[in-house]
Amino acid sequence: MSSLTPLNQLITRFQEQTPIRASSLIITLYGDAIEPHGGTVWLGSLIQLLEPIGINERLIRTSIFRLTKEGWLTAEKVGRRSYYSLTGAGRRRFDKAFKRVYSSSVPAWDGSWCLVMLTQLTQDKRKQVREELEWQGFGAIAPTVLACPRSDRADVNATLLDLGAQEDTIVFETTAQDVLASKALRVQVRESWNIEELAAHYSEFIQLFRPLWQALREQEQLQPSDCFLARVLLIHEYRKLLLRDPQLPDELLPGDWEGRAARQLCRNIYRLIYAKAEEWLNSALETADGPLPDVGESFYRRFGGLK
After folding, report:
1. Distances 46 to 8, 34, 116, 220 between C-alpha atoms, Å
2. Where does the Transcriptional repressor PaaX-like central Cas2-like domain lie (predicted)?
3. Is residue 175 very low, low, confident or very high in pLDDT (cuts 50, 70, 90)?
């Protein structure tokens, strides 16, 4: 166990989940820590790395097998050892999700919207399209109309094409408005994106990690193992939040939006602990060639700059 009480509480909280989301944590670990070091590690070292979080060898092997079957990971045998890395598809999914995690701020909004009409789709196909576009930040402003104030048209088209719905879906793009966020629009946003529920999740994140931030700052010398455990749990919880967050422009959010404080807290903790966590990763993980490769310059651009 760690000497930091808030960190032990976070580990216990993760262990008490039913079921333990080991596969999700492994994806977090690959995205945050392994991919910057070349993306491939020996399974045995991965097992040892995650043991302090309470994930036993059997569960890790089961989770790795499932992630491989689902197309996230691929294995390479060298002698009797297995080395796992993200697949090309897994890396693309990781890039898309984690780009939001490490951004320093939400991009500026010009007041335009993307509208997607689902009236010509069958009920089953409509449900499928709606679920996929909601992951990209769309909300329902009417039973068959989805809207997003900030979307990538190429991503929308690719999603519709993948679902076989492009020919039967109508997509509009509006021009910028003089009044970006009227009272009526703010009310509509609260209804269509369930802002109150998301704010409650951000508030919980702050309550969980603010004591850790305070405890870390009080340490005369940070322990590499503690920093690694804190980092993986921090990014794991923050990533889960961002999967729910449509990343709406500031103009459409409440003035006291908890998401801003959560991002600042996550950035502050990460900047404080990343270097010591890197020491632990370099000592614990192995590749087929031995030690981990050094991280690239892009790693240090996370959260607006780590150095």
Report:
1. 20, 10, 43, 29
2. 108-179
3. confident
